[in-house]
Amino acid sequence: MKTNTDVSKTLASKLSPVALAVAMTVPALTNVAVAQEAEATEEQKFEAITVTATKRPQVIYEVPIALSAFDGDKLAEQGITDLTDVGKFVPNLNVTGFSAGHTSSVNPFIRGIGLQDHLITTDPGVSVYVDGVYLGRQVGQNWSLNNIERIEVLRGPQGTLYGRNSIGGAINIITKEPDQGDVTKVNTEFGTRGRVKADVFVNHGLSDELAFNMNLSFNKRDGLGEFINVPNAEYDVGETEDISGRVSVKWEPSNDFRMVLTADANNGDGGLRPYTVLIDEVGSARYFGGGNGLGVELRNSDVIPEGFDRYDNATGTEAVTSVSNEARGLSLTTEWDINEDYTAKVVASQRTSKYKAGLDDDGTIFSLDQFPERGEADQTSVELQLNGYINEYTDFVAGLYYFNEEGSNRQGEDSNFDGGPNLLQLDQETTSKAAYVNVRHDINDELSVSGGLRYTEDEKDASANVFGPLGTIFDSNDWDEVTWEAATNYTFENGMTGYATIQSGYQSGQYPARPYCLIGQFFGAGGFDDIDAAQAAVRANNCFTASDNITAINYEVGLKGRVNEYVDVSIAVFNTEFEDLPYQVSRVSENGFDTANLVVEQTSRGVELDTTFNYGNFSMMTSIGYMDVDVEEQAGFSPVAPLTPDLTLAIGPQYTFELDGGDSIRVRADYSYRSEMYGEPTSAPERNTDLDSRELVNFDIAYTPANDAYTVALYGRNIFDERYDNARLNTGDYVLQILSNDASEFGVRFSTEF
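Request: output the structure for the sequence above.
Response:
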């Protein structure tokens, strides 16, 4: 493992002059602030955030895991509008989007764990929760973050309390709960690239026992390119339009009992995500040499004709020019304070989602490889919790969890492979049951210990049809695992808290996402010469089988808390070992676009630092993550963790100018850096899947009058118009280069509350 000196040299060598200038300017700004503010009053000291990462309210310093928290009311100031933006400011977190070219997909990678795909037979390694409800699918998760109380990003396996698909970490989104206050908030944005955004939030007490709030949001942004061969395309490349709403009703007939019923919905439409295709760099026989079903020789100039740029799209297939998603959810949270020591809580939810997307993989006007796709999923979850105190020194959280999901993906009606018909029909039902308990005991005022256990049973019934004569292949599997956690916290004399944690994680096995290997098995067993025997042979021993349990164990030590009245700090050092971890490897075979699971052992180790400096009118946040990932050699080559930068950095200085009469102007800048990474599990240069580092800079200048009646702000996001790759995928015939939809944007934001 590299020393601190090595890490410092690496940091200095990888950052551009822009980043170094920002880093060098921050101490100067700090000195200015210190000189201007001789003393900090008691009211100017920042407050510690209370989080619920351990499913019990705790001050963030007391939680024995690496955790970043964001105040929902301050997200816009930092340029955070969705989950993709959150990924720019958390150590060792990278949020990308891929998923059949959909613009609303979110694919988080924490400490080298994530998921590039989206099909129903795949599961993410980082779980996303909204008000305690797990979201099973990644398409449609790039939420517009309105009506948000707080966002928590938990890093490392969360196998005890969260369990469900959280071997890399978990992201908690907590919305604002109804209360008795009467308030209406209006937020609008108008900016370049056709940005129009508006949301209205209303909270109102209907009676002493009943309150509600509602949020309605509209968000639109123009595209970055045109579909040059589809003049009637409804949307441009990368164009987005989203409408969402959420209504919550809270009934609290007494101080001991409360129920919150929430309904939410969103509809998203737009153009296919920006991407391009590299053909010349691969030089395959099928594309470059013309050995395909259409007999055409393809070149990069067919993807980007003369006079156009890479954000234009040359497809001639209207079916892949647009994407859409719909989601509906209903949840009921009930809490009952049984007595002073015990509280029971039930979170029940039902959600549905569906989408339309798909790529034209050859990226040309020719109908060679194009895969319009539709998918849907229905999920039901129920969680029963019991929280309480065993005695004055010991508290606990225990629970039962049930989750069921049924979903499908369809390609075939209008899709082609190698110029001929293509078929993909996937179905899966997942049922997960778990029981867990977590206990914390205070040995004395300084030292506490905690531990937890979780038992999980998962069952999956899956089917795949990729070839009509073969028919549908069915398979079922089940898994179970006990995960555990042991942690200790020690509070030093200066108030800082040190912790040490050992925690395990688990994820059930996964079926192949695109099992076109079945076609090869069919013809290998005789094919049409003896179709009955071939069908029987494939069903008896086929490649549509699930992988084994994925397990993880994390060793972590950290120090967090308030160094003094001006500085908050959180530092974590970790080593996480994963076994039976599937990497998704996609390639073009003679039978189709095949995706198989490469099962590996992976070790992620690194260090993470979060700091906040606050003195008078000046504040600054800093986050740094450094990680080294080792993957066991496989069949003569050494894989790498995909979409995982080894260095992440964010810096956000802010200063508030107090004007005569009580008006104020707040000036903020935010810098985010992600180092080089790879788009697939190999670092071989000839694969052309390396992604360059990226640096993004935002600013926000906001004016608020003395009476706080409104705030008007000038904002800039990605102000230097950094264009970067979200992902790359080499299929053997071509490289899909997924481009960011994150061009520069400047505009005006207005918010008022009454």
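Residues 1-13, 17-46 have pLDDT under 50 and may be disordered.
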